[in-house]
Structure formats: C-alpha cells, structure tokens
Write the structure tokens for this entry.
Amino acid sequence: MAAVKELFDRFVVPSYGRFDLALSRGQGSRVWDVSGKRYLDLGAGIAVSALGHAHPEITRALAEQSARLVHVSNLYYTEPQGRLAQAIVTLLGPGKVFFANSGGEANEGLFKLARKFGHDEGRYEILTAMNSFHGRTLAGISATGQDKVKKGFEPMVPGFRHVPFNDLEAMRDAISPATAAILVEGIQGEGGITPATPEYLLGLRALCDEKRLLLFMDGVQCGHFRSGRFQSFQRILEPPPAAPGGPPTAPHAPEPDGRKAAAAFLPDAISMAKSLGGGFPIGAFWVRAPYADLLGPGTHATTFGGTPLACAVALKILEIIARDGLANHARALGDLLKQRLTRLAERFPDRIRAVRGLGLMLGLELAPDIAAFAGNGKPASLQLVQRLHEAGVLTIPAGPRVVRLLPALNLSASEAEEGLAIFEAVFARLG
Ligand SMILES: *Cc1c(COP(=O)(O)O)cnc(C)c1O
C-alpha cells in the first residue's frame, strides 16, 4: 500500500480525494486489496461494473474481439457499432445513437445537439436542476447544479441555468426566449440519490412540447437496468401494481389521465455511460427519431467513439442481462435491500435519516449530528464509508451526508445479506 501510494504522491496529479486503499484484483462482487484483504463491493466502481469483476464471458468477449479488430476509426463502418445502436434503439424507441467514451462526453453531445436544434432561432440555453451532476468537462461543470465543481474554473460556458429539482413551476418560470432544452437525471446520483417524481417527468414532457424545447435525460448513472428497467424514467412512470388489499409498493404513478402519458413518455435524447461497458470505457447518447439527423456528417466526432472492441463488450453485457433476467433481479434485490435498510433506519433514527432510491441505486442519508463522527472535521459520509471499509464493504459517498449502494446487477441474495449484516454491525457500533 505504501509503495503504491508513494507512486501516486510523486507522479499522479492529485485531483482526486482517495481512500487509503489499493485494490489489486476482483471476482464478481468481491475485490482484494494489495495486502490480500477481501471486500464486498457494493459500489461497483461507481455504478460501472454491471456484471461485477472478471466476468468470464466479458473476458472472453474482450479477448475474441481484440484478436479480430480493436479500432479502425469512424471513417469506416463496423458491425458491432451498428448492432449496439440497434440494440439501444430497440430498448428505447425510434431514434439513433452516437457513441462516445464517457458520460461527460455523452453529455457534451447533448449540449451540441441542443445548440444545433436552436441555432437558427438564436436559442442556445439549457436549463438543468440544482444538485444535478453532468460531468467534469468545462460544459459539464457549467451544466452541473453544484457550486463545488465550478469553483476555481470560472468563467463557466455560457447558456446554462439551474432551477430546483422536482419543481415544475420553477422550470416553467426559468424558460426564456433563448431556451432550447431541459436536462435532468431520472435519479440524481452525485446529488444524493433523489428520484424525479412521475408528475415532474410528465410535466417536463408537456412543458417541452408546449414551448418547443428538447427534453434530455442524463441516464449515465441511473440507467442501464440499475432501477429494474433499462432507464429509470421507465420505472418511475410505471403504474402502481394492482395489489388488492395491499398498499402499492412502487412510487405512485399518476392516475387515469396521466397513465397514457406515462406509457407514452419518452425524452428527446438520453445520455449513457457507466454500466454500458461494464468497466470498458464507452459512452453514448440516443436521440429520438425527429431529431436523429440533426448532427449531420462533419458536425460531431470522436476518434475512439464506438470502437468494435467497446461495442462488442457492451453487446455481450446486454445479452447477459437479458438472458439472466438481471433487470428483474435488480428490482427484486433492490426492493429487499431498501426495505431492510429502511428497517435499520427505523432502529437507528439518530444515525440514519432516510433511505432513498430505486432498484440497485440506493442512498442512505445520515442524521446530521452523529456523535461518533463529531469533532474531526471530516464529512460524515466519508467517515461511514471508511468504517465500512474496515468492516469489509465498499460503498460510495454522495456529498457530505449520503452513502450510496450501486452494486453489480448480478449481486447475489447472500452477498446482499452479508452486506446488510455488516451495515447493521457498523451502525450499532456508532451508538
Ligand atoms: C458519472 C456521471 C457523469 C460523468 O460521466 P464520466 O464518465 O465521469 O464523464 C455524468 N452524469 C452523471 C449523472 C454521472 O453520474
């Protein structure tokens, strides 16, 4: 550990706050550090390792495609890119896909799409939500509704304004003659695991139709079946299950008039990355049919976008998720985890204030004044994550008071139980 850290101290730009942990290998939802200590990985590389670590079929797909063709550039056609685009369109609806290499770059594509869309009318502005996160490029931090990512990098790229999340009237009031698009996450991730309400999403769709704006969704973290559906808005907008006698367990979907709108809901474009490549870097955006040819030849490009290697891996991941029923698994296991964590919150109301999220995208909001965390100046989220490390579990902080669970979609029920037992022990010791 000390030797690896020494290399970083001397040679790596110190732009990240890192935990004192050097990881060397993984298998499924297990990872080992350089000293041989084993951890249960409930963070999956920030919602990236969709099938866990070292999945044998992904390893084989990587090896086979790399022995055939890794990269040729977008001057030529390659079959895996076309097939992956087809698979994504099949999951969403009529449209087309552009391939990039990260979430930030996928969002850059959306920003350019909005500018192109509004250009001839002098419209360029994109409205986003407070507490959102859209990446660390210059336009990404301009789009992000959190001051901490902008600090020291001003001036921002012009044309972005932020309004309170889940507040339809605030969004309506913010629209100006220059507005071209609205961009929101279905479930705010970095902002602390806050799902959009069904009413908000349906309201945004109607507002965008009324004002001729593009509706964009950032599905980089909450997408790719994490919620139990391919995109989180599909889960959020599900009608409540018909459970005679019992209360609905899903978020409340809108009643009759809203039902048709919910079933027909589609944004105009969706950005993706993180789980899309399961750890192999790839990003993408899907754009709905009427706007699918806005970015014509020569208008947008990236050298590495949609390489045969990245696309072959992403295709294999989609195939395994479908074959193994991992969407339903993520939903069921996520619901169970949420229920059990909610019970833990009821047991320790002085330690856990709320449990939020859908499927395998869950957040624990910590109580504001946990005595065990007082006095050392470090955010409570970091202190809890560190204690969980000591107890053998990896989780991800989101801001100063939220800890996220973003495990692999194929996390097993017994691994989830093991994680819950560790959470329980760690929270009990915080008393
Ligand atoms: C991680 C993330 C991004 C940025 O993706 P990178 O691959 O880090 O550039 C953008 N939007 C959301 C919602 C994210 O969670």
About this structure: The mean pLDDT is 96. The radius of gyration is 21 Å.
